[in-house]
Amino acid sequence: MDGMKLKRWLASVLLLTFTILSCTSGAFVGVNMGTDVSNLPSAPDVVAILKAHQITHVRLYDANAHMLQALANTGIEVIVGVTNEELLRIGESPSVAAAWVNKNVAAYVPSTNITAIAVGSEVLTTIPNVAPVLVPAMNYLHRALVAANLNFRVKVSTPQSMDIIPRPFPPSTATFNSSWNSTIYQLLQFLKNTNSSYMLNAYPYYGYTKGDGIFPIEYALFRPLPSVKQIVDPNTLFHYNSMFDAMVDATYYSIDAFSFANIPVIVTETGWPSFGGSNEPDATAENAETYNNNLIRRVLNGSGPPSQPKIAINTYIYELFNEDKRNGPISEKNWGIFGTNGSAVYPLSLSGSSQITANSSGVFCVAKDGADSDKLQAGLNWACGQGQANCSAIQPGKPCYNPNNVKNHASYAYNDYYQKMRGTGGTCDFDGTATTTTVDPSYGSCIFTGSSNSSTSGGSFPPIALGPESASGGSSNLQVSIRQYLISAVIVCIGVSMT
Fold first, then answer.
1. Where are the alpha helices (DSSP H) in 26-129?
2. Where are the domains of the chain?
3. Which of the 8 DSSP states describes residue 338?
């Protein structure tokens, strides 16, 4: 087995580890999918990215028909969203709620594994004038689910931000904003009656950046704190190793202040931006990598916060792609963990243990066979110009000049651009003249960027494809062994679920 095959095998074992950890601990890490994205991939391509990275849970901010169709028969658990714009009409009319459920839920289950409806997004803090219809809307939707015999399969809740808890530290004294007492009591009563979870959007990034230095950044990033900086609740003497845990616990204590118990908290949004403006120094790829990798390890250990140690903190990372069309500060556009081609913005460890390196899969971008030569020339010119690809190797006398044709030169330029820019959203498209391949296009002394023989690499890892390789791309025995491992993982999960 050569080095490239070994790396592919190890990457697959890491995914197996993630599968086993997820099913044995009962905890999971999902992702949110926003759509304010230029060049948003097609729904089938998005699902391919989710599957390639073994993502088992996804939250949609609406009920997009194309996504729900593409997610059919994948087993991926889906939260669909009632948008804030839809909320008012649903909250005022049971018939509108019933029509919404029939169109956006009943029409897709069981093929599409819809498990929850998120009603609005941070309604109490973003559109407070709609608050009076929030719980009525949830009740109407639940009744529609009952009528469709889906109420045990699909739960209803509403994501709220930490802003409705004015003083979240110390957690033991945290309470909801009293101006919302009536609505929150109705909300908690609904969640209790329907065995649903409280949906929390928790962002230590904002807790830290708006905290004026009250807490160390290590606390926000799940990093160990020295003994002199330990964060302790003076009332309970609970030690908090992360701001994330403290936020979740503050929510549990706020719920408890209304004398409700056994309502689990699920974190529907959290994350860290990888890039920001000059006034956002903490929005860096390094911090985002640290936060999300440590978050995944934290969640997958299956424990809860100090006050609820036996309740896992199931969590959805914000978000799948950078939403470059969003308004606001630069950081607002840079929360994505993957480029639109499925490559990681920074090294990410889905297993919560070892990381997958940049060259682990050997995905390359090359010109398509039969592509129009004029379009290829235009793509080549763009890649070597505005795209800032390093095209020195395809100049006369250089290693990749021959064979001297536009397809060969375009393949080299396309790939150089792709390897360098995919982590920040660069795609392998070039007006439909390019495609990805796992077959290393290097030949002789012409070494393509990203090759295991290249001195430079793309800097971020691409998706891991577990499907069959081409005849020239690798060993079928290797693929069979991977499938056997994954089948074993499924058997383990089934065994755990039956015990």
1. 43-52, 65-70, 84-92, 94-101, 123-126
2. 3-333
3. B
* Token pair for 282: 């903490």
332 is catalytic: no
Helix (H) or strand (E) holding 115: strand 114-119
C-alpha–C-alpha distance, residues 186 and 170, integer Å: 25
Answer for the pair 343, 462: CB distance below 8 angstroms, yes or no.
yes
- Candidates 224, 245, 227; CA nearest to 236 is 245
Reading the block at residue 463, the tokens are 């998706």
Q: Which residue do the tokens 């994501």 mark?
A: 159
Report the candidate in 169, 67, 184, 75 with the shortest Cα–Cα distance to residue 132: 184
Among 244, 154, 148, smallest CA distance to 202 is for 244
Distance CA 230, CA 224 (A): 9
Catalytic residue, candidates 86, 269, 289, 323: 269
The alpha helices in 151-216, defined as continuous H runs, are 181-193, 204-209
Read off the DSSP letter of residue 446: B
Comparing 14-23, 104-113, 184-193, the range with the smallest average pLDDT is 14-23
Residue 102 token pair: 């029939």
Name the nearest CA neighbour of 267 among 178, 135, 157: 157
Q: What pLDDT is attached to residue 498?
A: 37
> Can you give the pLDDT at residue 290?
94
Catalytic residue among 122, 289, 319, 323: 122
Q: If 0-12 CB within 10 Å is exposed, 13-18 middle and 19+ buried, where does residue 153 land?
A: middle
CA distance 232 to 169: 10
* Whether the predicted pLDDT of 9 surpasses 80: no
Please, which residues bridge with residue 78 across strands?
A: 58, 114
pLDDT category of residue 103 using cuts at 50, 70 and 90: very high
According to DSSP H, which parts of 148-270 are helical?
A: 181-193, 204-209, 217-220, 243-256
Give bridge partners of residue 118 from the DSSP assignment. Answer: 81, 157
pLDDT in tens, 202-242: 999 999 999 888 899 999 999 988 888 889 999 999 999 99
With beta carbons less than 8 A apart as the criterion, state whether 307 and 253 touch: yes
Q: What pLDDT digit, counting tens, does each position of 468-493 carry?
A: 222 223 333 333 333 443 333 333 34
Residue 134's closest CA among 191, 53, 219? 191
Rounded distance, CA 68 to CA 438, Å?
29
Half-sphere exposure of 130 (CA within 13 A, CB side): 22
Q: Domain 3-333 adopts which CATH fold?
A: TIM Barrel (3.20.20)
* Range of lowest pLDDT (120-129, 295-304, 449-458): 449-458
Neighbours of 86 (CB within 10 A): 19
List of E strands, 299-429: 315-317, 364-367
Active site residue 122: yes
